[in-house]
Amino acid sequence: MTIFLVSQTWSVRCQPEEREREREIFVAGHSIHHCIYCSCSSLICSIKIPFQIFIHSYIWFCFSLRSSSAFNISLTPLLITLMSKAGALDLASGLGGKIDKNEVLSAVEKYEKYHVCYGGDETERKANYTDMVNKYYDLVTSFYEFGWGESFHFAPRWNGESLRESIKRHEHFLALQLNLKPGQKVLDVGCGIGGPLREIARFSSTSVTGLNNNEYQISRGKELNRIAKVDKTCDFVKADFMKMPFPDNSFDAVYAIEATCHAPDAYGCYKEIYRVLKPGQHFAAYEWCMADAYDPNNQEHQKIKAEIEIGDGLPDIRLTGKCLEALKQAGFEVVWEKDLAVNSPVPWYLPLDKSHFSLSSFRLTAIGRFITKNMVKALEFVRLAPKGSQRVQDFLEKAAEGLVEGGKREIFTPMYFFLARKPLSASE
Predict the structure, then answer these.
(1) Which of 153, 193, 236, 372 has the largest count of CB atoms under 10 Å?
(2) Do 75 and 102 share a structural domain?
C-alpha cells in the first residue's frame, strides 16, 4: 500500500484541479491495483530484499522529484499511471483490436501456428501474410501503445538523450533526408497508428497520407489525428502496400519506418512505391534486416531470428544486401545507405535490455514489463481483458529477448537506412 500513501501525499501537494484529476485517476485504477497486488503477492514475497529496497528508493526518488521546486511536474507518477484509467483500462479495452473479444484466444493460436516455434514455415507465412500481419496488429497494438507511445519504432541514441527524444530525432532525420517542403504530398507506407506521420507533418508542414491494412490501427490513428488537430492535413487509407490504390506518380515523397519488413516480397513492395512516387523524387526507409554477421547455419542465430519473427509479425527477415538489390531491381537509384545501428553511442536495444533501468521509459524496463505481465494476468483473470491476452504478452516478451540478443551479437538491425531516387527519365 506504499503506492497508495505516496499518491495521497502527492495529491495534498497538488493544486485543487490537479488533486481532483489525480483522485479520479487513482479511483479508476484502484480496482486494477488491487487485482495486481493479489495476483502478484506470491511473487512479491519471493523478491529479494535488495530489490525491495530499490523499489522503495525509486518511490522516494519520484516523491522528491515531484516535490522539488526545480521541477514543474504535475503528472501522476509512472507507477500510478501503470494502474490508471489512462493506462491499464485503455490497455484492457484495446486488447484484440477489431477481433471479437471471445475470439482473441483462437486468433492467438492461429497466429502462433504460422511460426517456426509452433511448426509453421516461411512459405506459409508469405502466402498468408495479410492474415498473419492483421492478426498480429490486432493483438499487439494496445501493448505497443502502452509501452512505446504513438511511435512504434527504435532509434539510435546519443548519451544523455531519452528514448522519446531519440525517436523524434529519428523521424526528423528522415524528413530532412527527403528534403520535404511545405505543402508537399507525402506517403507513409505502413503507418501504424500514425505517431511518425503526425510528427513529420508538423515538423515539415506537409500533408501526409498513412497507408495501413489494419482497421483497428486506422481507427485509432484517426482518433489521435483529431486530438492532435492534424486531421485536416493528414489522413489514412486502408490498403495492402503490395497493391496500392493510388494513381501513378501521386506523391512528392514516400517513407517507411520499420514497416515494409512485413512485405512477403521486398521487390514487389518497392516496385509499388516506385510506381506511386513522382519522377525525380525520393523514397527513404528504415528496414528490419539481418546483418552480414548473421549465419543461417548457426542454430543460435536461427533461434534469435525465429523469436523476432513470431514476436513481430514477420514472414521473414531479409539480409541488408537483399533489400539493396530489390531497390535497384525496382528501378530506384540508391543515393546512400547505412546501418544506423553501427557506432550508435547508446545501443538501440537498450530499452529492452533487462539490465537497464530508466524512469523515462519505465514500462519497457524489466521491472515495468514484470508489472505489465502481472497486470495483464489480473485483467484477464477478472475478465477485463480477453482470454489469450497473456499469450500475446508472452510472445512479445520472446521478441524482446530475440531483439536484445540480435542487437548484442550484431546480427540484426531495425534501422538499415536507405535514401533512393526515382529517375526523372521514368516520366518519359
Answers:
(1) 193
(2) no
